[in-house]
Amino acid sequence: MKACVFTLGCKMNEVESASLMRGLEDRGWETTDELGFADLYLINTCAVTAEAERKSRQAVARVRKFNPEAPVVVCGCASQNAPEAFGTRDGVMLVSGTAHKNRLLDLLSERGILRDTEESFCEMPYPKRTRTRAFLRIQDGCNRFCSYCLIPYLRGRTRSRSAESVLAEARACGAKEIVLTGIDISSYRDGETDLGGLLLKLKEIPARIRLGSLEPCAVTDGFLTAVRAAGNVAPHFHLSLQSGSGKVLRAMNRRYTREEYLEACARVFRYFPDAAITTDIIVGFPGETEEDFQESLSIVGEAGLARVHAFPFSPRAGTAAAKLKDTPAPVKKERMARMLKEAARAEAEYAARFVGKEETALFEEDGGYTGNYLRVYAKNAREGGMYRVRLLQREKDGLSAEIITEFTEKE
Predict the structure, then answer these.
(1) How many other CB atoms are found less than 10 A from the CB of residue 119?
(2) Which domain holds residue 304?
(3) How far is 191 from 180, CA to CA, in rounded Å?
(4) Any idea what the CATH number is for the domain that residue 323 is in?
(5) What is the pLDDT of residues 104-127, one digit of tens each?
(6) Quick one: 392 and 325 in the same domain?
């Protein structure tokens, strides 16, 4: 019997889907994450934007084209937000939300809609290894209630995994790089252990540790001291920004100022001069003027950002921002073009700093990543190999490199 687990959305969903695949295999199923013929389809949905939710609904029709007789199980944020939109579709036998994922596989004989939220961290089977890097869930939920975001309503309040459980999975996964992921890992806390304390516990793990998205307020001197003391944490900090305008940040309920964001970036560079700081920026938030947008453009250079993920504002029903007058679509499109151009400039400028230097890179199927998240390409690099490389020149979306030496398992 074959099960297809199809995933939309964030890294958190990808990790949870990999856990579901492991659980299915433990029950004797053959699993795949590629669309094709299967005897069971499990769709893990996303609701971060209206488009993501639409694609989640479309996924039901997509999978049924491969086998109209196979039952379909739906879970995730989109089905938490609008369960009836999935429960009425042909072939869907069970609709769950963001809860119950740890026991969803025990409910496959159930029918109908299960909709609830978790009150404690949901432990799941260790994820099936599908890539060179392992993604490790340490936290779920969010208490921040940004005015544009549905996630706190769908995922529930913030809750953290025990440090003991995190360490146990990290020891068992055997990956050369472990990415700590969650909805808001900045809020991680297990008793007296905060995120910095968790990193100090993970220093025993013979792997490169990479952090998921952080809030600027998390980047304190104490936290950065812990990162440096751990010794195995990649110098890559994804500091969520969303806007360079103080006025827009207040409207977003982001709880920091432009100046505080810039100081957080400067603090990172004091501890890690070659660090990559990456971010997200929303373009065309309601009420964003040309002056506000110019502040978002200018902060890219002022903050020394290495990479920017920019996307246009998408109103989500049920959020405070959805009640505001949206920015006209042509304005968003024009500003997006300018932001993408500035993002490309910043990325190329950051990469150019490292031409001729040596870095350590972990390679996947097509290229690799250095600790500071430079994309690199090298001839004869094998998937899963960790190499010391010399960076040469701009190539594709990164840098070409020549291999100096390969690290052995003992190293």
Answers:
(1) 11
(2) 133-352
(3) 18
(4) 3.80.30.20
(5) 888 888 889 877 666 667 777 778
(6) no
